[in-house]
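MOLECULE: protein
FOLLOWS: sequence and fold
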Amino acid sequence: MERNSTTAPTAPDAPAAAAPRFRRRLVTALAVAGPGLIAANAGNDAGGIATYASAGAQYGYRTLFFMLLVTVALVVVQEMCARLGAYTGVGLGGLIREQFSVRVSAFALLCLITANLGLVVSEFAGLGAALELLGLSRYIAVPLAAAGVWALVVFGSYRYAEKIFLVLSLAFFTYPLAAVLAHPDWGQAGAQLAWPHFLAGKDFLLLGVALIGTTITPYMQFYVAAAVADRGIGPAEYPREKADTIAGSLFANLISMFIITATAAAITARVPLGSAAQAASALKPVAGRFAEQLFGLGLLGASALAAAVVPLSTSYAVAEAVGVESSVSRRFREAPLFLGLFTVQVFIGAAIAVTPGNLIQLLVRTQVLNGLITPILLTYVLILANRRSVLGEAANGLVFRTVATMCVAAIALLSAVVLVQTLLGWVGIR
């Protein structure tokens, strides 16, 4: 496969050389940010923010150690996906089609579609919650948002709005400051970060699965492998991409832990979140009486961005699997399956998001669905990364294979326990 070479940046001129050192470092960091950093931070979307805030509100600092374990798993999984993309030049969807039978590949695609549909619902629920904070009823806001996202994508203008949504979502980077200004019990937080303080209840297990589902999102795994391959990152460039992937995973989960800490300090009544306004209260140390507006803008940006990207990723995967046209630059008659599937997902996501109920809890429940599906797709990733026929000498070694297997097995076991508990609850067994 022919790979495009990248040219080194030119030396700065005199005015640029006089710029403050921190600004030069920031520009450099943004310039080298790769698929690993982007993919890992994609987990801090509407569902992620709601789930982390719910963890802090309901269980205080108890989930911090759990997030430490999830961080290890995220680093392992993201690194395997990036390595698969770099050493094969093919995304996960293509590798699964090449390496598995038609039925097994179809099952993986079905799991991805189901997980992504849950994410689409969560993004429109996030849009509804955000616009309610900004004074607009969800029953008006969600249909309008769905129509807007659909039009932006179908008429090819989404790439311009994308920049605005990205800027709005930067509001969530105030959480580390909010966590410090809220004066949490650092001793208790440190103790529960360093040592497990788990609870045996069903609700805690459900939230644990939701944390896995929103942190190790199947969509992210497919994105990072495809993005690495599409950028032409090969074995020679992989050491830099590996550093990017690990750094992105660590940074994303550090933000997640700050969200949990800030919310735990701001909300002392240990009950599930009842509204987005409660989640926004964690930002009061930073924004004061404008906390709800700041949270609402951040939630709006993160949700709108993902509300288009997630259904598009499903449309790309399905269209590529059946070998038909897949491009947002095409019209409906030129790419009916691709744009039709995108339209159906947007319609279903918006329809479910306007049903009566607690939008924050809807966001968390969709992450539970992701958590149940995640170990299935991670098994595909693990098998591919273990195969020398796929990666050659870059395949998982004994130590990495052992750690990766333990991570996937632990996630699968927790998901299985929650699934069994749920099924028993349906038949009246508690």
